[in-house]
Amino acid sequence: MTEVMRATKSFYFSSTGCLRTSRARKRVYNYFRANGFSLAAHSREADILVVDTCAYCLKTEQDSLALVAGLVEQKNRDAKVVVIGCITKINPDSLSGLGDVVMMTPQTMACLDQLINATVPFKSINPDGVVWMPGDLQRAYGASHCSRLLPKPFKVWTLRMLRRIFPFTWKTKFPNLYKKIRLASFELARDVLVGEESLRQGIYHLEVATGCVSHCSYCAVRNVWGEMTSRPMEDIISEFEQALKAGYQIFALDAQDLGAYGRDRGDNIMYLLEKIFAVEGAYRLMLHDFNPQWLVKFYPQLVALLQKNAKRIVYIDIPVQSGSNDILRRMRRPYTIEPVAACISDLKQQIPGMAIEVDIMAGFPGESEADFKRSLDFLKSLKKFRPVFLWTSGYTDRPGTEAQGMAGKMDPQVIEQRLHRCDALAWRYGFFTGDAISLLHQGMRQVGLSK
C-alpha cells in the first residue's frame, strides 16, 4: 500500500465500460464527491486517477492495460493512479510493469479511506443507482440523415435491401458506406427497443445480485465476485419505485446470473419479476444474462408473465454460447441445446415483437468444424424471427480457469474466421449485432463518470 496521501481536491474517472459493474462505479463516484473531490476535466488536472477495468477476455484486458498505461503517462507527477475492477483479481500481475499504481479489488475498496484521508468512509456510501445518457454517437459513427427521415417500416425495408445488395465481405472495400449502414442499424435498434425519446431520459441500472451459482470452465469473472449474493427483494423494489418516481422509464436488471436470483435467499427470479410488474407506471425492463438453464426451468411461468407484460420488456439476453452439446459439456454449461432452442423458438412465437439477444462463443478448446456448424444451425433457426440481437466472442485463455489447461486450443486466425462467419450470417438474416448493442450501451455517457 502506498503512503497516506494528503487531502486532495480533484479526481478523474475512466473506465473500459462493463455494464455489470455500473453500480460499483457509481459508488466510487459518489464516494469521492462525498469526500469533497471535484471531477477533473482532464487526467493531467487530477490528484487521483481511478481506472475501472475489465478482463473477462484477453481483448478487454488489453484495452484496460492500455488505458492504465496511458493515464500513468499523462498524469501529473504527484498524482496517484488507482486501478479497480476485474483485472485486479483476474490478472493482477499484468499491472506490474506499468509503474506506480494502486490496486483495489472489489473486496478491498475500503482501503481508499486511508489513501485519501477520507472523512466519509467508503462502506457508508450508497450507489443510488446508475444512469446512462446518450453520448455523441454521430461524431464516432458518422451522419445518417436518411435513416432519421424515414419512418421505422421504411428503415426496416431499406436496411434489408442494403444488406442484400451490399455483401458483408465488401465492408473493407467501402468502409464509409458500411459505417453508415451500421449507424442506421443502431438507430433502428434504438427505435425498435426503446425509442429515441425514452432513451434520452437514460437507462437506470438496477443491480439485483452479484456473483454466480455456475462453474463455467472458461469464466474468470466468478473468481472476482464469488458466490451468488442476492439483494433483498424489498430493497430492490424500493429503489425501483424511487427511480420510477424520479422519472426514469428504462431499467436494466443487472446481475452476473440474473435467472439465479434469490437461490441464496429462498426466493427466485419469478417472484422478483412478479413484484416489479405489480408496480404501476410507464416503464420497460432489460433482462441481462438470463442463463439458459433458468429459461428452461422457469419457462411455463416465465412465458405467461412475459406475455402479460410484453409491452414492459425491452429485451431478454440469453447467453447460449454454443449449439454443440459436446462443447456445452466442456464449458460446464448445465443444459443442452435442444430444450433451450425450443424455448427460444416458442418464446418468439408467443411474443413475436419481443426482442431477444443470444450470445455465441467461437473457438472454445476442442471445437470442431462440426461443433461450430451446430452453432450456426442454431442461429439459422432464428432467421424467421424479429428482432434478434447477436453478441459473439472468441475464446481466449483466462488465468485460473479450468479451460486454460484444456487441450485442443485453436489458432486465433481460425477463431477470427469463425467470428466473421457468424457476423456474415447475422448480416444475411438481418440480425442486429454487437455493434448495435455496444452503441446502445457503451456509446452512452454515464452521468458524472465521463466527459
Structural account:
An eight-stranded mixed β-sheet has the order 14-13-12-11-10-7-6-15, sandwiched between helices. By secondary structure, it is α/β, with parallel strands linked by helices. The protein is 42% helix and 16% strand. It is globular, with a radius of gyration of 22 Å. Mean pLDDT is 82; it is low at 1-7, 132-158, 194-199 and 442-451. The chain starts with 9 loop residues before the first strand and ends in a 5-residue tail after the last strand. It contains 19 helices and 15 strands.
Return the CATH class of the largest domain.
Answer: Alpha Beta
Give the rounded overall mean pLDDT: 82
What strand line-up does the widest sheet have?
A: 14-13-12-11-10-7-6-15
**Class per helix and strand makeup:** alpha/beta
CATH topology of the largest domain: pyruvate-formate lyase- activating enzyme
Total individual domains: 2
The major β-sheet equals: 8 strands, mixed
* CATH-defined architecture of the largest domain: Alpha-Beta Horseshoe
Question: What are the defining features of this structure?
Answer:
451 residues, alpha/beta, Rossmann fold, pyruvate-formate lyase- activating enzyme, 2 domains, eight-stranded mixed β-sheet, five-stranded parallel β-sheet, 19 helices, 42% helix, globular, disordered N terminus
Brief description of this entry?
This protein is an alpha/beta fold.
Topology:
Layout: E1 10-15, H1 22-34, E2 38-39, E3 48-53, H2 58-74, E4 80-85, H3 87-90, E5 101-103, H4 112-116, E6 130-134, H5 137-141, H6 145-149, H7 152-165, H8 175-193, H9 196-200, E7 203-207, E8 209-210, H10 221-225, E9 229-230, H11 233-245, E10 250-254, H12 269-277, E11 284-287, H13 292-297, H14 299-308, E12 313-321, H15 325-331, H16 337-350, E13 355-362, H17 369-380, E14 388-394, H18 412-429, H19 434-441, E15 444-446
Helix pairs in contact: 7-8, 8-19, 17-18
